[in-house]
Amino acid sequence: MGNTTVIKILSESNKNELVEISGWVKTFRANRFIALNDGSCLENIQCVIDYENTDENILKKITTGSAVKISGKIVESAGTKQAIEIQVNDISILGESNTEEYPIQPKKHSFEFLRENAHLRPRTSTFNAVMRLRSTLSFAIHKFFNEEGFYYVHTPIITGSDAEGAGEQFRVTTLSPKNPDLNSSKEVDYKKDFFGKETYLTVSGQLEAEAYAMSLGKVYTFGPTFRAENSNTSRHLSEFWMIEPEAAFMDLNGNMDLAEQFLKYLLQYALENKKNELEFLESRLLEEEKKKPEKDRSEMSLIEKINFVVTNKFKRITYTEAIDILRQCKPNKKKKFKYIIKEWGADLQSEHERYLVEKHFKCPVIIYNYPASIKSFYMRLNDDNKTVGAMDILFPGIGEIVGGSQREERADVLNKRMKDIGIDTKEFWWYNELRKFGTAAHSGFGLGFERLVMFVTGMSNIRDVIPFPRTPQNAEF
Ligand code: 4AD
Ligand code: MG
């Protein structure tokens, strides 16, 4: 009689089999019925205690949250909610959980409350399901790229360059905050810092991935990225995970094709491999929807939404076409947008992106060929000399989920662009050398992993799809 798991019992156990299992008590009813969860799957197993023959001291300690070890026999369940259950022969308490103090009671808790208890929230079914999906999606990402011949490259987390040129980086330093070394002009002397120069946590692995794409051909990174932007929204984290493929000899069209194929693959994989979790999250959302006025309710259920994205072609439009639609649309004319679109060149805000996706096209949209002035220095200048080969993918309910581009592979054009916007070309010497030795067309994109998990799980706050969120003024756990 070995130690088994709930998933094994539910999928492959035979009646009358003797089992031994450890897990946590979700609920204990009528001094008899334990709903036991061990993390192996979303489902609990019902364990029925012969309470007349169980020590009262032990019965008292079977409380929500306690860890127990049970041995017993698999039997057909007398109840209707489950096919089988464990008839308990012996139970021992591994770790008590004081009911008065344990924050995760068997009732609905608000997500705000659970964020304050981020160390215990994985014990709720919702977080359990979300984090299972997160894990499955991570696996599917590696599986996809492996099948497509991409190599996984571990790009550095500490960097000396600002990959996005947006100046939103966290400094990494070992200099004393009270008495930093100063140079002759009485400024902090970063030559004395740990790396002998200014260093930061990376905002993207792209630049280093480009170096490897120019050798391994097709590569991807999947790691944490950090942004010190003060955006307290439901879609921004200060620490988030990003997947960044980069491929040589691939142009913008190939990049859009790859991104669309990739996203559909991941969603399909979740549908096929995490059906129970998705059904659980779908019913949670339906409950939430019922509280809303009818007109605000979603037309599709969670699984319908995912299926819709898998089976429909993403709409592809240029930035110029997007601006034309937005300029003519009702909320723009009636000044319902916070930012009114007046002319070509305006940056698209999330209200505009969501209008295009949710109201106008009602499907995922890829916008490409943006004005150079609102995009990063490394994007390839188009022949019109004013747009770059950038592309953003917008998802319903999420907004921007992917941002990517064809990269500027021409040394002279890149150098001019960097100088025009005031980037120190010396700092990027190695990036520029990629254009000097064997340069070639290449492209890539970044998928915000948490935004993908939000879409798949239907969670509406990005803080609830990462185990321990980092946001401005918040790094408690
Ligand atoms: O559009 P971004 O800034 O693109 C890049 O970083 C490129 N270097 C990617 C590339 O071409 N290799 O970020 C890519 C994606 C966004 O579309 C969004 O999904 C996500 O990363 N993202 C964030 N997710 C959570 N919190 C934040 N603060 C995010 N900033 C970007
Ligand atoms: Mg972007």
Topology:
Elements: E1 3-4, H1 6-12, E2 18-29, E3 33-37, E4 45-48, H2 56-61, E5 67-76, E6 84-95, H3 111-116, H4 125-147, E7 151-152, E8 158-159, E9 171-172, E10 199-201, H5 206-216, E11 218-226, E12 239-248, H6 252-273, H7 275-290, H8 302-311, E13 315-318, H9 319-328, H10 330-333, H11 350-361, E14 365-371, E15 387-395, E16 399-406, H12 411-420, H13 429-433, E17 442-448, H14 449-457
Parallel strand pairs: 1-2, 4-6, 7-11, 13-14
Antiparallel strand pairs: 2-3, 2-5, 3-4, 5-6, 8-10, 9-10, 11-12, 12-17, 14-15, 15-16, 16-17
Helix pairs in contact: 4-6, 4-7, 4-14, 6-8
The structure holds 4-amino-1,4-dioxobutan-2-aminium adenosine-5'-monophosphate and magnesium ion.
The site of 4-amino-1,4-dioxobutan-2-aminium adenosine-5'-monophosphate has 22 residues, from strand 12, strand 16, strand 17 and helix 14.
What is the distance, rounded to the nearest whole angstrom, between the alpha carbons of the first and last residues? Answer: 39 Å
CATH fold title of the largest domain: BirA Bifunctional Protein, domain 2
CATH level-four homologous superfamily name of the largest domain: Bira Bifunctional Protein, Domain 2
The averaged pLDDT comes out at 95
With helices defined by DSSP (H or I, 4 residues minimum), what is the helix count?
Answer: 14
What is bound: which ligands?
4-amino-1,4-dioxobutan-2-aminium adenosine-5'-monophosphate, magnesium ion
In angstroms, what is the radius of gyration? 27 Å
Percent of residues in helices comes to 25-40%
Shape: globular
Number of domains: 2
Task: Please list the strands of the largest sheet in the order they lie side by side.
Answer: 7-11-12-17-16-15-14-13
CATH C-level label of the largest domain: Alpha Beta
Q: What is the strand content? A: 15-25%
